[in-house]
Structures are given as structure tokens and as C-alpha cells.
Design a protein that fits this description.
With 441 residues, the chain is α/β, with parallel strands linked by helices. The chain is built from 17 helices and 14 strands.
Length: 441
């Protein structure tokens, strides 16, 4: 099939490359000349494991193209995916749909023959109706169907998630559109991937409901971690004990500094706004948003406490800046709350992240970015682990101890074991785990 992606960002680029790898002919369109130029040269605008190789192989095979010319790409397409950004709108927190609506208008102007227009972007309930209305008003003679097909890609594992998904959700009541979507995803049938067809509005809500539920799980275990510290329990054992219950499941039960990234903060906020607008507030999600925001800010206090109650004039070596490993995404990363708070308290920051320092440099000021983890802790008064990259999981702590001015380690991801760190002579602080079996006061 001939497929066009409007938007060559994270979702559009990954989806486009994977559809091309399925055998479809895909054109990714973007209005950023620099991005298209870099893509044509094989330079990825984002870090995602395996993406550069996937793009290169499909470009070589003549299945994947990049263009600034939306007109030709739209005119020749059988399926057009809207994969533009929907950031939180300033002021009220609603999803900003201006890019989605602009894409719908452009599609309407150049559409040719029956075309399936697919909203791949995360959009509030009812957006598909608006997209359909825009296309009909702009081009009354257009033959099309608007379909909702939300993405469920985890950054750092996006290619695997696309090719081996838990499910594919498609929202439409048009049978021709259903058949075209079945054909698009036909390669997944070999894996017996469940394909759930729903009404369009239901599909739009599924995406928000899924992300909100995962955000609730993360926030729940973070609050349990705080309780564990008070009563002398171990949150990792609590997580395991409840996660072995099949009704709960073990995923997203890892205590830490709070969720971040491009999806959970934005989507939980958008869901609460939509719910309030319709007079059906989702109070659990409202609370999750508030608790998570407060938690990220409180992590700096944890570091300050571990360093004796003051960081004025001291140096903190930070390992990990991105919101999670295997991505360079800094959006709503906990480090963006923790580092400025430490700086405001008088600390100097040395930091290292394998992929996100370029992006972090746009958002953080007066940070000394380093060329490796040992450089970051050299001469520091404490080491703080914020993002659990694999290369931070087996550090040489004899070397770390020699480089640090004082043996203070704050592990916000529970990568290391308290007893082992104590044997090595470190003043070690983690999340939701007692020191020596005693409750933390």
C-alpha cells in the first residue's frame, strides 16, 4: 500500500519505517527542511535503538522516502497518517490540536480518490469528528474515512512494540476503512496480534485510559515506597509480592523519582481536562498528577538530606538526565526538577548522560556536562543516579570512592543493594528501602 505520514517526529518516523519494513511504500512528510535534509542523509533526529539501521535499509530498498512536498505525498496515498505533535496547551493544559487541524486541512486540499485518514497522534475524544468536519468543509467532494489508530510505543523499545504489539486498536465504523487497516497491519497476523475494532471515540479514549492507568501504578508504588521508608519495609519486595498477582501484574511497579517523558504527563493532564469539561471528573488521575509533580520536586530534598542538610558550595555528580534509558527525550524528565532545585540550594552540578546531554543543554543552565560517569563524579561531594542506563548498573565503586570527596551515593532508581553499598563504605540512600532494616525517620 501507498502510505503517507504527516509528521516525521518520533511517532511518524518509527511508524513509517516499520510500515515500510512490512513492505508498504511510505513517504514521511515534515515542514522542517533541516529535519528532512538530515533524514535523507541518514541522520536521525531522535535516538531510538535500531531506528537508523531500519530507516537506512528501507530507504535502500526504495520503500521509504522523505519529503517537504505534502501535496504529492497526499495525492498518491491510500492511507494518510496524522502523526504531528499534540503538546499541552499553555494556560489550561488541554492538548494543543492546532497541528492536527492544520494537517487535516492540508490533506483535504490534495486528497485524491478514497483515502483512509488516520489519527496516529494522541488526541482527545472527539478529535476525529473535528478532523472529519474540517475535511468535509474544505473539500465537500472528497471520498475518505477518518480512523483512530492510537500508538502504544515505548521510547527505547519502539520498533519492537510496533512489530510485536500487545494489540492494535482501530476506531471506525466504515467497513472499507476497516479492510484497508487490516491490509496495512496484515504482517502482524502471523504473530496472532489482537486487532480491536471499536467506535472512533472509544479508540481515542483507550489511549488516554491506558496511559493514565500506568501512571496510577507508578504513583501508587512511589507512595508505597514512602510508607516503606517510614515502617522499615522494602518496596522492591512489596512490588514483587503484589506483582505476582496476575490481576495486578509486575510491570510499572518500580519505585523512583516520578514519571516523565512525552506521554504520561501530557496525557494525564489532557484526560483530566476532558473529564472535567464533560462533568465527569477522574479524581484518581487528578491526584496522580499532583502527587507526581510534588514527588519530582521532593527528590532534591532527599539529595540535600543525604549530603548532611546543605549543598551550598558543594558539587553533585549526576548520572542520567533523560526521563528513561535508551532515549534522548528530556520532556518532563525528573532531572529538570531535581537539578535546578539543587542549584537553587547552592550546589554545583556535574552531569553525564549517554544520549541526552545535547537536549539537556537547551533546558538546563550552568551544568558542567561530562564525557563519562567517572568524570561526572570526579571531585564531587556526592553521586546521584537519576536514570538507570545499563552502563550505570555495574560501576567500579572502588574507583568511584576514590574520585568522590565523600562516599555519598543517592540512588533514585534502586539499581544497587543497600547492604553491598554499606560494606563498600558508602553512605547510601535509595527509594523505599530501609537502612539495616530500620525505619527511616
Amino acid at each position: 500500500m501507498r502510505v503517507t505520514m504527516i509528521g516525521a517526529g518520533y511517532v511518524g518516523l518509527v511508524s513509517g519505517a516499520c510500515f515500510a519494513d512490512f513492505g508498504h511504500t511510505v513517504t514521511c512528510v515534515d515542514k522542517d527542511p533541516g529535519k528532512i535534509d538530515r533524514l535523507e542523509k541518514g541522520v536521525m533526529p531522535i535516538f531510538e535503538p535500531g531506528l537508523a539501521e531500519l530507516v537506512a535499509s528501507n530507504v535502500k530498498e526504495g520503500r521509504l522516502f522523505f519529503s517537504l512536498d505534502a501535496r504529492e505525498a497526499i495525492k498518491n496515498a491510500e492511507a494518510i497518517f496524522i502523526a504531528v505533535g499534540t503538546p499541552s496547551r499553555r494556560g489550561d493544559g488541554h492538548a494543543d490540536l492546532s497541528y492536527v487541524y492544520a494537517a487535516a486541512k492540508e490533506i483535504a486540499e490534495h486528497i485524491n480518490g478514497f483515502t483512509v485518514v488516520v489519527t496516529k497522534s494522541t488526541v482527545p475524544v472527539g478529535t476525529g469528528d473535528e478532523v472529519e468536519e474540517i475535511i468535509r468543509k474544505t473539500n465537500p467532494n472528497a471520498k475518505f474515512a477518518v480512523v483512530s489508530n492510537p500508538e502504544f510505543l515505548r521510547e527505547g523499545a519502539a520498533i519492537s512494540d510496533f512489530k510485536r504489539p500487545d494489540r492494535v486498536v482501530v476506531g471506525t465504523d466504515n467497513e472499507d476503512a476497516r479492510e484497508r487497516m487490516r491490509e496495512l497491519y496484515r504482517p502482524l497476523f502471523l504473530n496472532e496480534t489482537p486487532m480491536l475494532f471499536t467506535e472512533r471515540r472509544t479508540s481515542e479514549l483507550i489511549k488516554y485510559a491506558a496511559n493514565a492507568f500506568l501512571a496510577v501504578k507508578i504513583t501508587f508504588i512511589n507512595e508505597m515506597a514512602d510508607l516503606c521508608e517510614k515502617v522499615g519495609a522494602n518496596v522492591q519486595d512489596v512490588s514483587k509480592g503484589i506483582g505476582l498477582d496476575n490481576r495486578i501484574g509486575k510491570k510499572f511497579l518500580h519505585a523512583g523519582p516520578g514519571y516523565g517523558g512525552s506521554c504520561f504527563p501530557k496525557d494525564t493532564l489532557a484526560l483530566t481536562k476532558t473529564a472535567n469539561d464533560h462533568g465527569s471528573p477522574v479524581r484518581i488521575v487528578d491526584t496522580v498528577v499532583q502527587v507526581n509533580d510534588a514527588r519530582k520536586k521532593a527528590m532534591a530534598d532527599r539529595v540535600i538530606k543525604a549530603m548532611g542538610g546543605s549543598v551550598k558550595g558543594k558539587t553533585v555528580g549526576v548520572l542520567g538526565l533523560a526521563f528513561k534509558p535508551n532515549t534522548d527525550d528530556m520532556r518532563d524528565a525528573p532531572s529538570l526538577d531535581i537539578i535546578p532545585a539543587l542549584q537553587a540550594a547552592g550546589a554545583r552540578i556535574k552531569a553525564y548522560d549517554p544520549e541526552s546531554m545535547h537536549e539537556a543543554g537547551k533546558m538546563l543552565t550552568e551544568v558542567d556536562f561530562c564525557d563519562g560517569p567517572y568524570h561526572a563524579v570526579d571531585g564531587a561531594d556526592a553521586m546521584v543516579l537519576i536514570t538507570e542506563w545499563d552502563q550505570f548498573r555495574a560501576l567500579d565503586f572502588d574507583r568511584v570512592k576514590k574520585l568522590l570527596k565523600s562516599p555519598v551515593v543517592v540512588d533514585l532508581r534502586n539499581v544497587y543493594q543497600p547492604a553491598d553499598m554499606a560494606r563498600r563504605g558508602f553512605n547510601y540512600t535509595s527509594v523505599g528501602r530501609p537502612r539495616g532494616g530500620q525505619a527511616l525517620q
